């Protein structure tokens, strides 16, 4: 009898174990009411997805379950008001709360980590209890909520992949503790009074923050891609440890009057400081050495960058104030260089670099060429007229007079010789008085020795 009872008990336990195993390992388990929840109560670990039914009971409390190796989804439910679990600790997949218009109580006091935490179109719970420390989330997405702050999320893990907080018009405070963001961080469309505090962030691949009153990034050292900060009311945007931006750096349409990025050395993309109505100088960029391009548009009165060595692309500077356009020398710019200012000031006009747009335009250069050609033509015509006047008896210039004097004596000598010959012809014997013999050999090059003899008398008829 005892043996039969033992066998029967073993069979029951085996069946219960199999049932429990089946209940704790399922592709998808749907929770609709208390009976469904009871089936999970004996499972400390559930493998698969847990989905709260769209027509579930208003209150869903899930005891006993500690780990979900999969997703936990509560979505499109207009009845749910309370979701709680005193034992939930780890959810390896996605935790999604979406389209829950009446959710007012979200209590997960022992929740530590999940792969993705996603809030989408949910109200701010009036009662919430998240563990304040130690939460690890690979991806945090908060979209289209009425949150005024992020329900106690500390997110102190060393790294997360994606941070996306968009279209939350009532959000006042973001204070997250993660150290690195390996992919992208986007915070946009929030309250104009939003304060963004990321006190431990040291590295991000992409960083985009817009709409708010203040941005605090005290430890940020490098952004491997692009970095954009826009529409921030604060007079100070501070990233005092930032040294490198691998893409574009955009700071636009803000109340910025002081930029604190004095450790920034290298911006591989273009630095765009545009429409910051109070930003008058670049004194907060004292270490900037290399930049892919410069686009400075605003009320700048001083664009001096003392450490700048190279602008790899174009430089465009447009100021509504008086500005010395040689603050940034055009010799440092490998691309085109354009500077427009309300008043262009040169501290040292003899040495100041003149930007191309203050130089000669194409039309001006063409006019100068035409003028030079016309001047050359006039010079040639004047020379021809002067030459013709000289030929016509106009007194020669001093140089030409000297040349005429060179030939004056030979002409006179020829005339004198002719008169002597005329006189000698009358005498009949004087014409040969100077040539009474042949030259001896050697007196003329190549001459042959000939006897001295008197040339036969020969008369010349002079005409």
TrEMBL record:
Residues 410-443, 454-463 have a biased composition (Basic and acidic residues). The keyword Flavoprotein does not apply. This is Cell wall protein Ecm33. Residues 395-463 are annotated as: Disordered. It comes from the Eukaryota. The lineage of its organism: Eukaryota, Fungi, Dikarya, Ascomycota, Pezizomycotina. Keywords: Membrane, Signal, Transmembrane, Transmembrane helix. The keyword Membrane applies. It comes from Friedmanniomyces endolithicus. The chain crosses the membrane at residues 364-387. Residues 1-22 form the signal peptide. The gene is ecm33_2.
